[in-house]
Amino acid sequence: MKIPLLGTGSTAFGELWHYSIPDLISEAQHAALQSAHLTADAIDLIIVANMGAELWSGQGHLGALAAETIKSSAPALRIEAACASGGVALATGIMAIQSGMAKTVMITGVEKMTDHPAGIVNAGLMTACRNDVEYMAGASFASLFALVTRHYFDTYHIGRKELAAVSVKNHAAGYLNPKAHLRKKITIDDVLTAPMIADPLSILDCSPVSDGAASIIIGSPDYHRSPISIIGSGQGIDTMSITTRPTLTSFSATQKAVAQAFGMTSLTPEDIAVAEVHDAFSMAELIALEDLGFCQAGTAHQHVGTTKALINQSGGLKAKGHPIGATGIGQVIEIAQQLHICKQQKPNTPHYGLTHNMGGIGTTVAVHLFSIT
Predict the structure, then answer these.
(1) pLDDT tens digit string along 197-209?
(2) 322 given a catalytic annotation
């Protein structure tokens, strides 16, 4: 598989009070068209990734809204897969290209979340879990990941200090990213003394509530050319409720998705130069590193910032931000930029990147692999 990445565009991620959903979509999509040197009539299909626009923005029918924004008459649809909406939307776009139904697909992720108090945001987030099992029992997304974190601590005998290194690393990267939500360096002590959200997770172990949009354009390999190509695509699924899982220290959906993606190539995790992984909580990054094959189970804390692949150079969800529908598409844009840097530094060496986008507590996962020529 080789699907060219033709163009990219993104808003900043953050508290974008002056933006509406249409504003966010418009800025990202027009930037992507400009980047690809295409006009709207060249787009055969529009896909929008979004989780909660009805609840948080009072707006549905986002496919039609995105088409209207660029004055396109192309078929348009919306994908919802919780926090994995962007990654699943990309996988859907790839299938449209491979089926021959489209030669050029625009995929846009968007979310507008910051206009509401925490209770409304949490209610929306918890629709990614089992309403009748977890939400009705009073759980929040943070408290469920706190259970995962506590179980991991008990299994592998680490604590909050080791975990805090993830947030410190990602904030240092986000500080350098002009589009990041949280551009502030932090220390281990900052994480350990920050207000507790759900023991053992402090506020600095959790990604922020963000607004933002990101848009990419992909094309048929026999119709378009680009230095960046998608060469692997995988999706995995697990139970919505963590109460039925055999373990909480790894996510089988990630393992299934990464196996499928690598199975389309001759690559292994050792070949990956840059990766954007889904660190909605700091513990999620450690588990992802292990499930993706970058290190052995229970050892990820020993490899924070030292794996062969550079992880979350954007700042990750933790510092760049997490406007849910836009997150997976934003990861793709970051990897494209990072691969260009790799190519500039070592022009005669092949370079490969990976994105890992997760919905729910390891319930839905999309993994994509990228190359630069």
Answers:
(1) 999 999 999 999 9
(2) yes
